[in-house]
Automatic annotation (TrEMBL):
Gene Ontology cellular component annotations, sorted alphabetically: acetyl-CoA carboxylase complex
Designated name of the protein: Biotin carboxyl carrier protein of acetyl-CoA carboxylase
UniProt key word Lipid metabolism: yes
Residue ranges of every copy of the Lipoyl-binding domain listed in the record: 79-155
Keyword Lipid metabolism annotated: yes
UniProt xrefs under InterPro entries: AcCoA_biotinCC (IPR001249), Biotin_Carboxyl_Carrier/Decarb (IPR050709), Biotin_lipoyl (IPR000089), Single_hybrid_motif (IPR011053)
PANTHER family named among the record's database cross-references: OXALOACETATE DECARBOXYLASE ALPHA CHAIN
Length: 156
């Protein structure tokens, strides 16, 4: 296969929005893969790790922190919002062929893994900060999440 033909294939994959093309011709195999384009934005606030602090809960939209792992916002007396501690890719299950860690209506206990956020090829388990019932899942599987973005609502 000539270089010009290969160049045309690459342009075709790009122009048509294809993610993968495999071709075998005259004993020559060509495989072209295009990864999803990911738009990453940075948060201008630097992340500074603080020493461990004890957890306090105040109602009326106050913020609660435990070990600075991730923030929990109490919106009202009935729900707690679990937020992302990092920028990364949200995964609702341990692998694509397994069930989600949690879904709406599930009962969770403090410390149960709710999801995974992948950041720089590292998998970070996000755990429940309170025991209760999952009221809402605010992001979709494989969605890019920002620092401090709400992920779940739990009714304690």
């Amino acid at each position: 296969m000539k270089f010009e033909n290969i160049k045309e294939l690459i342009n075709l994959v790009s122009d048509k929005g294809l993610t993968r093309v495999d071709i075998e011709k005259d004993g020559c195999k060509i495989s072209i893969r295009k990864e999803k384009e990911v738009l990453m934005t940075s948060n201008p606030e630097p992340y500074v790790q603080k020493p461990n602090t004890s957890q306090t809960v105040n109602v009326n939209k106050e913020t609660v922190q435990e070990n600075d792992s991730h923030k929990v916002e109490v919106e009202d007396e009935n729900t707690v919002t679990i937020k992302s501690p990092i920028v990364g890719t949200f995964y609702s299950a341990p692998s694509p062929d397994e069930d989600d860690y949690v879904k709406i209506g599930d009962k969770v206990s403090k410390g149960k893994t709710l999801c995974i956020i992948e950041a720089m090829k590292l998998m970070n388990d996000i755990e429940a900060e309170v025991s209760g019932e999952i009221v809402d899942v605010l992001v979709e599987n494989e969605e890019i999440v920002e620092y401090n973005q709400p992920l779940f609502k739990i009714r304690p």
